[in-house]
Each structure stands twice: as structure tokens, then as C-alpha cells.
Write a sequence for this structure.
């Protein structure tokens, strides 16, 4: 009966209640006064809202019947939590509340009236709690007309730093456990004892915690930091400039514009700067600390390694002989499949190429043979394996006591040898990589996009959409982007560099006059693509290739962005850029000079014997693989051809003319950004003609043609074929010709003799040529899905002694 009565009263009161709610929610307040509280029961309406409507403070659900008191960013499509009072101890969803007591203490009480959290203030009158426009939750008292801050959330950050908030000596950012679990995770951004701001992984086992940013194998000064300033402060501005007392400073890619921004230590251990896009109501990454996600420690746990591929994001794999410990949590890593007793006699090694395990070296032995290194490792019972690396013209041996922070990438020089029982070696050799499991992509909401404000123009904000957003209905493809990862150098020269400071000492801006002098009035014209190329001698005596870009209409900010993109790409098989010039309409790029010119120049002379050709094929594939996979920007070249492959004094291939192509979204995106077909007839993949999504596979195709040209010495003259619907496709005559010769010949020997460049006069390595032709033919498959990725091409060509395809 009693229940019914109450219910009736409730029904009567309902309209009133609703009215009250509406009144309440239509006039949200930013202030909680002394003696009042916010209750979890009315979590949706019982909130403080900052006067500008950007931030809210209140209870937010973090699990089943679990709530945390938090400040969040209200206007994003999903609320973005920027601060939490009780991230590790959520409260019950029934009777919990946060109260500002009569004594001035802000107290979070759980259902059972247990204090979960408080500000610890007391004996204060005239106290109020205010959520400010900056997102700072401030407890203030007014005394004799003056207001004093008793407590503020900005002094106790969780995983996010907002503009106007300072990261001080006693504060740190701690990542969340995962994207859905806000409790304290495994990574922190903290002030180290030597006054340097660092990222630290402190995982499950305190013994395996380690610093991973800035790169720990370099000293603070090599990383552009200083240890001399002990003030330990760092702050982010709303225009996108971050600077800290250890001389770290960086700019957002859209720096210069006043935006909502946040610096967050994400649960994957990467520190990212985000800016808020009002149109899509999403956050966009505009800087991140680690472009190569596998370099974040702890990602895959012990006894495993991380590999990275633009198609699959990060992936973890257990080492041979190990299995995953706690599916699906990779932080626990892998454990041995079988327990065995270490012994000199029964143990052997399995090799994993292009891999590295950071730290935990038992010792270091320079100038060792592989056998000697194996012996050394076997002699330590705790040796789990060793790193064997060729460096400074000797082989170095690093026996490892633990196998942590493993990473594997093509182009990494060095192998790791894992200690396993001899009895099982043959099994592991056949299938060395046990399992590759994708990690969750992170972060999901990011759209690849960048915005620039031209530094010298007011008000005009030019938004450059580099990449088409995925087609509707296509499943969310995760994108991780960092563009223009730029650390400011300590010897800054603001006016000169247009606000962009460049760290590399060799990289600089040239004046137009300097370059005119260097090229003696732009006279010596060479060959090149994308613009006119001149040879010049710089004032310091270096011989440079200077490219004057044709598209002079490009704005200053866009030009500088492209320049930074190219400059960041650093690989022995990519041409090195030394600087640029931007003056008025002039846009010039200064590159290292390649003594032997382009592959195109060399192919038709007697200069290239078979060894050189093979090494050019390998070098080119490595350069392209680097562009495709290891750099965050996923640069597609889009114009791979012999004219763009330059040869240094040792005939080592260096890919040129990259980076001026647009950045491409990872995964299969339909490319409305490629409105104009780019490339060179004969080397162009059919994908362009069929209007297929443009992926890095277009470069694979072009590479295949170049490889065939290297073998045959023939140009890929093409014929046009009309296809259904009236379009035309180019079907490489060279490809058809090679295939016909292969199919028509009775022996491998026979077709090789037929297709080999007559200039070689039959002097070539049969096995290598067969391999290269087979790989090249895979590359030029019509169906791009059957073409290998560039990384696989490298692996296939590289393993000519060991593997078969
Ligand atoms: C978050 O992770 C912690 C620690 O693993 C766990 O105790 C807690 O239940 C998790 N919370 C949610 C909401 O899953
Ligand atoms: C609070 O005030 C009481 C009475 O005035 C006093 O005894 C107590 O020491 C004060 N506490 C603090 C922390 O100031
Ligand atoms: C230390 O860093 C702070 C904050 O960046 C700066 O204001 C101060 O001038 C620096 N001190 C010295 C001695 O460089
Ligand atoms: C490993 O060593 C222990 C003690 O020495 C012995 O009891 C055990 O049988 C050994 N196991 C194997 C597989 O050899
Ligand atoms: C490496 O060892 C070999 C043989 O022990 C020796 O001849 C050679 O000089 C050593 N090289 C270096 C760089 O120490
Ligand atoms: C490794 O060898 C041991 C002993 O021969 C055997 O019991 C075990 O099944 C092998 N493990 C694998 C993965 O082959
Ligand atoms: C730039 O500023 C000047 C002076 O403040 C103003 O006259 C002009 O209209 C502004 N230009 C733009 C594009 O807003
Ligand atoms: C900055 O640039 C000016 C010329 O614009 C030059 O005179 C000066 O030496 C430069 N300063 C530094 C620190 O490079």
C-alpha cells in the first residue's frame, strides 16, 4: 500500500519535477556553492557547465553501476574526459554524491558514506567550486574581497593537459588502462630527476619498466633537451605551441590558429596533441611523440615482438617457442610453450631477421663471429638469445637476459637469435613466426587532415584536406597520423624560419641569391622531374642538386609542410634534402648531388653490370618500403621510374622526387584526393585507369616495371587497349613480352638468356635474375591484391640465398 501511495504522489509531482528539470538544465550553472552537492542519481542533469558551454563536470558512467566524478569536453560527438577525481575507485551509481561541505571541503562520498576522494580543504568559509572556461575546476574562497584558490583540478592532471594548464614538478600524466577503462594505465609522462620530460612504461612487473621517449639510447642533449633548467614546467598554448623548461618544444600541424586543443597520453603509450574540428566535432591528431608505434615499450609484453605495417597497424607476435600468456592482453606477453632446462649441449638458436630487442643486454662483445656469439650466449644460463648486428664495419654481439620491447621492421640492420631446444629448431625454422595478432587500432576517431594558417595572413584559414575520408558504410578504418613532427632546435631564428624551427643543422633555408650564386645563375641544367634541375656548389663546398619547382603557386605554409615531410624521411636509399628556398614566387629544393645521375641515364650505357643492377633493384625496393611503411605519413611515390632513381658514387640507388605526392590514408580508400592521374606512361599501374582506389600498390606496380627494365634493358613502351565502357588501359608490352618468353621457353636458362639485356653479354647470376624476374612479375599483377607489399618485395629479394618463392 505504502509503495502505491508513494507512486501516486510521484505521478502527481511528475510534471512539476519535469519542469524543474527543464528549468535546471536550461540554465546550467558553473558554480557549486558551499553546503550543496551533485548527486550520481541525477547524473545527467546534476552537472556544472562552464560559462562558455565547452566543459562539464559531474558523474560519468565508467562501468556497470560505476561512476567517476569527471570534467569532460562537452561539444565533441563523444564526451572527451579531460580530468577525473577517482579514476581508480569508481563509486556506486545509487547514493553517491560529491558535496562541498560547510567547512569548505570537496568530498566524494560512495553509497555507504565512505569518503572516496576529497580536496582536503577545511576551516574555510565563503568557498565555492567553479568550472572555468578553460576546463579548470577551481575551489575558491573569498576573504576581505580577495579570492584565493584553495584547490584546482589543473594541479592534478590525469592523462590530459589542456591549454593554460602547466605540467609542473609534482605533476605527471598517466595514461588510461584502455580506451574504455579510465583507470590508471601503464604509461606516464613525468619530470625525470635530471629535469627532462620523459615517457615511461612501468608495466606489470616493476623490473621491466623503462623510459622510451625521448630515445633513451641518446643523451638528453642529443635529443635536443637540456638538463640545466630545474624549473620543470611545461605548457600548451591554444594556438598549438608546446614548450617546456627542458627545451622541448613543438608545434601542432595547424599551429597558429586558436582552437580547442589537448595533449593526451593515450592508453597505447603515445603522447598526442589533438585539436578539435568544429565541423566534424571530432579530435584530430596534430602531433605525436612517437611516429613509430612499435618503439613504445611494453606494447607486446615480454618474449614477443611488435611489427608494423600500414595495412594492419601494430601487430604482436610471440617468439618461436613461446605462446601468448593471457589472451587478449598483450601486456603479459608470451611464455615458453615447453619448459626446458637450459644447457650448452641441447640448446640452439632460431634467427629472426631485421629485429631488435631493446635493453637488458647481459654484456657487449664487439667484433665477433656468429659462432662465437652463439657460444657466448650458451655459456650464460640466463641468456635468452642475442642480438647480432653489423655496425661500424664489425659484427657486434649482445647477449640478452630478457627479451623485451622487441620490434621488427624491414630495413632494420640486425638480427636476433632466440635460444631454443635444438630438438625443436627445425620446427621453428619452418614457421618461425608463431602468430601475428593485431592490436586494437588507436585512436579511432582520428581523421587524417591538416589545417594551416599562413603565418603572414590574418584571418584566412586555409584548410587542406589531404585525404578523402573513407566511404560511407566502409568500416571505420583507424588512422594514426603524425604530420610534420617537428622538434624545435635550440638555436632558434624565428623571423628567418617563419616560425618553423628546424633541428637538423645541415638542413636550412637558402636565400634565392645564395642559390643563384651556387648555380652560377641557374645555368647548368640537368635532367629531372617535377621541375627544372640545376647543379650547384654551395658556399660550404658541397655539390648540390637544386630543383626549381614548377608549381610556384603553392602557398608558403603548404610548401613548408611538404618540405618538412620530405626532410623527415631519412633512409640510405632515399635522396637526402639539404634545404629549401622560399622567396616570393620562387620555390626551390636543395638535394644532395648524385654523381652518377639517374638510372635512366645509366641503363643504356655500359655502366651497369649485373651486380650493380641487382643492388639497385634491392636498394630501390628498400627506399620505397621505407616510404610506404616505416614513416608515419604513408608517402606514396606515385611516379616510380628510372628517371627518379638516382645513383651515388658507389651506384647505390636513391629514390628521388618523393614526398611531393599527397599523403594517403591508410587502408583502401577511394581517392577523390587524386583527381589528377599522376605517373608516367609505361610505369603506371592499371589502378589509375580503372579508377580503383589508389594505394601504395601503384608504386609496387611501377617498381615491377623498373625491375624488368633493369633485367631486360628494354623500355616499357606500352600499347593502349580499349576496355569496356570506353576507357583505355595500358597494358605493358614489356610485361607481356617477358611472360611470353617465359612460357615459350623450355628451360629457365633459355628464357633468361632471351630476356637478359644484351649489354650484359650473358654475365649475370642466374639465381638472382630468376628471383628478380619472378618478384617483378608478381609486382605487375593486374589485380593489386595479388601484388606483394613493398616490404615483402624487399624480403623476397633480400633472401636470395635462403628462400625460394
Ligand atoms: C579497469 O581495469 C581495472 C584494472 O584492471 C579493473 O579492476 C576494472 O574493473 C576495470 N574497469 C572497467 C570498467 O572495466
Ligand atoms: C580549524 O578550526 C578549529 C577551531 O577553530 C581549530 O581547532 C583547528 O585547528 C583548525 N584546523 C585547521 C586545519 O586549521
Ligand atoms: C627555465 O625554463 C622556464 C620555463 O620555460 C623559463 O621561464 C626560464 O627562463 C628558464 N630558466 C633558465 C635559467 O633558462
Ligand atoms: C631439468 O632439471 C631438473 C633438475 O635438475 C630435473 O629434475 C628435470 O628432470 C630436468 N628436466 C628435463 C626436461 O631435463
Ligand atoms: C676483428 O677480429 C679479427 C680477428 O680476430 C681481427 O683480425 C680484426 O682486426 C678485428 N677487427 C677490429 C676492427 O677490431
Ligand atoms: C619441442 O620438443 C619437445 C621434445 O622433443 C617436444 O615434446 C615438444 O612438443 C616440441 N615442441 C614443439 C612446439 O615442437
Ligand atoms: C588583415 O588585417 C588588416 C588590418 O588589421 C585588415 O585591414 C584586413 O582586412 C585583414 N585581412 C583579412 C584577410 O582579414
Ligand atoms: C638569424 O637570422 C639573421 C638574418 O636574418 C642572422 O643574421 C642571424 O645570425 C641569425 N641568428 C641565428 C641564431 O642563427
Amino acid at each position: 500500500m505504502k509503495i502505491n501511495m508513494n507512486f501516486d504522489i510521484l505521478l502527481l509531482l511528475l510534471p512539476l519535477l519535469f519542469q524543474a528539470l527543464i528549468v535546471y538544465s536550461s540554465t546550467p550553472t558553473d558554480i557549486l556553492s558551499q553546503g550543496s552537492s551533485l548527486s550520481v542519481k541525477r547524473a545527467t542533469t546534476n552537472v556544472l557547465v562552464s560559462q562558455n558551454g565547452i566543459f562539464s563536470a559531474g558523474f560519468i558512467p565508467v562501468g556497470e553501476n560505476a561512476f567517476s566524478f569527471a570534467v569532460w569536453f562537452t561539444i565533441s560527438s563523444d564526451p572527451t574526459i579531460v580530468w577525473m577525481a577517482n579514476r581508480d575507485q569508481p563509486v556506486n551509481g545509487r547514493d553517491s554524491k560529491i558535496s562541498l561541505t560547510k567547512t569548505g571541503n570537496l568530498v566524494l562520498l560512495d553509497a555507504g558514506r565512505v569518503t572516496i576522494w576529497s580536496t582536503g580543504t577545511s576551516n574555510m568559509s565563503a568557498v565555492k567550486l567553479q568550472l572555468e572556461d578553460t576546463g579548470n575546476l577551481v575551489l575558491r574562497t573569498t576573504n576581505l574581497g580577495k579570492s584565493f584558490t584553495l584547490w584546482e583540478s589543473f594541479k592534478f592532471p590525469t592523462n590530459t593537459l589542456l591549454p593554460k594548464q602547466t605540467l609542473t614538478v609534482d605533476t605527471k600524466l598517466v595514461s588510461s588502462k584502455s580506451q574504455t577503462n579510465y583507470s590508471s594505465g601503464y604509461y606516464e609522462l613525468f619530470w625525470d630527476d635530471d629535469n627532462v620530460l620523459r615517457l615511461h612504461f612501468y608495466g606489470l612487473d616493476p623490473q621491466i619498466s623503462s623510459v622510451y621517449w625521448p630515445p633513451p639510447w641518446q643523451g638528453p642533449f642529443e635529443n635536443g633537451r637540456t638538463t640545466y633548467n630545474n624549473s620543470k614546467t611545461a605548457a600548451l598554448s591554444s594556438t598549438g605551441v608546446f614548450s617546456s623548461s627542458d627545451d622541448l618544444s613543438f608545434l601542432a600541424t595547424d599551429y597558429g590558429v586558436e582552437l580547442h586543443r589537448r595533449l593526451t597520453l593515450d592508453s597505447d603509450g603515445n603522447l598526442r596533441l589533438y585539436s578539435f574540428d568544429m565541423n566534424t566535432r571530432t579530435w584530430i591528431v596534430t602531433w605525436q611523440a612517437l611516429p613509430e608505434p612499435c618503439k613504445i615499450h611494453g606494447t607486446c609484453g615480454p618474449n614477443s615482438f611488435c611489427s608494423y605495417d600500414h595495412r594492419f597497424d601494430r601487430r604482436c607476435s610471440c617468439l618461436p617457442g613461446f605462446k601468448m600468456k593471457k589472451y587478449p592482453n598483450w601486456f603479459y606477453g608470451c611464455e615458453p610453450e615447453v619448459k626446458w632446462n637450459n644447457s650448452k649441449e641441447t640448446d640452439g638458436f632460431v634467427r629472426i631477421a631485421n629485429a631488435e630487442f631493446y635493453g637488458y643486454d647481459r654484456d657487449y662483445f664487439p667484433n665477433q663471429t656468429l659462432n662465437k656469439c652463439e657460444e657466448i650466449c650458451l655459456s650464460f644460463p640466463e641468456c635468452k638469445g642475442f642480438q647480432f648486428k653489423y655496425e661500424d664495419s664489425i659484427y657486434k654481439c649482445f647477449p640478452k637476459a630478457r627479451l623485451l620491447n622487441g620490434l621488427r621492421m624491414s630495413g632494420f640492420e640486425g638480427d636476433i637469435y632466440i635460444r631454443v631446444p635444438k630438438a625443436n629448431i627445425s620446427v621453428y625454422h619452418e614457421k618461425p613466426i608463431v602468430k601475428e595478432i593485431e592490436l586494437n587500432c588507436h585512436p579511432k576517431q582520428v581523421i587524417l587532415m591538416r589545417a594551416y594558417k599562413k603565418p603572414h595572413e590574418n584571418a584566412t584559414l586555409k584548410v587542406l584536406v589531404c585525404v578523402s575520408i573513407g566511404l560511407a558504410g566502409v568500416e571505420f578504418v583507424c588512422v594514426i597520423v603524425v604530420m610534420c613532427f617537428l622538434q624545435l632546435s635550440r638555436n632558434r631564428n624565428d623571423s628567418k624560419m617563419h616560425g618553423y624551427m628546424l633541428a637538423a643543422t645541415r638542413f636550412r633555408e637558402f636565400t634565392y641569391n645564395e642559390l643563384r650564386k651556387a648555380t652560377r645563375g641557374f645555368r647548368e641544367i640537368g635532367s629531372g622531374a617535377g621541375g627544372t634541375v640545376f647543379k650547384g656548389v654551395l658556399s660550404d663546398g658541397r655539390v648540390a642538386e637544386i630543383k626549381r619547382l614548377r608549381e610556384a603557386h603553392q602557398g608558403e605554409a603548404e610548401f613548408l609542410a611538404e618540405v618538412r615531410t620530405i626532410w623527415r624521411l631519412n633512409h640510405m636509399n632515399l635522396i637526402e634534402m639539404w634545404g629549401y628556398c622560399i622567396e616570393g614566387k620562387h620555390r626551390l629544393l636543395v638535394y644532395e648531388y648524385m654523381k652518377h645521375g639517374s638510372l635512366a641515364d645509366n641503363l643504356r650505357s655500359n655502366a651497369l653490370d649485373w651486380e650493380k643492377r641487382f643492388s639497385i633493384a634491392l636498394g630501390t625496393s628498400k627506399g620505397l618500403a621505407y616510404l610506404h611503411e616505416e614513416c608515419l605519413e604513408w608517402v606514396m611515390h606515385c611516379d616510380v621510374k628510372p628517371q627518379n632513381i638516382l645513383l651515388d658514387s658507389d651506384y647505390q640507388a636513391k629514390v628521388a622526387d618523393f614526398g611531393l605526392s599527397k599523403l594517403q590514408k591508410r587502408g583502401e580508400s577511394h581517392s577523390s584526393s587524386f583527381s589528377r592521374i599522376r605517373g608516367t606512361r609505361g610505369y603506371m599501374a592499371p589502378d589509375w585507369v580503372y579508377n580503383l582506389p589508389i594505394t601504395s600498390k601503384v608504386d609496387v606496380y611501377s617498381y615491377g616495371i623498373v625491375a624488368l627494365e633493369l633485367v631486360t634493358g628494354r623500355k616499357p613502351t606500352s600499347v593502349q587497349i580499349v576496355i569496356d565502357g570506353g576507357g583505355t588501359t595500358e597494358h605493358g608490352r614489356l610485361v607481356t613480352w617477358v611472360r611470353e618468353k617465359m612460357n615459350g621457353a623450355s628451360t629457365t636458362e633459355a628464357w633468361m638468356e632471351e630476356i637478359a639485356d644484351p649489354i650484359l653479354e650473358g654475365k649475370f647470376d642466374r639465381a638472382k635474375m630468376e628471383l628478380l624476374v619472378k618478384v617483378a612479375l608478381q609486382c605487375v599483377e593486374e589485380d593489386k591484391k595479388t601484388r606483394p607489399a613493398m616490404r615483402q618485395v624487399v624480403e623476397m629479394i633480400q633472401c636470395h640465398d635462403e628462400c625460394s618463392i
The chain has five domains: 25-155, 166-286, 304-438, 506-592, 599-798. The mean pLDDT is 77. Residues 572 and 654 are 7 Å apart (CA to CA). Residues 229, 231, 233, 245 surround 2-acetamido-2-deoxy-beta-D-glucopyranose (ligand 3) (CB under 6 Å).
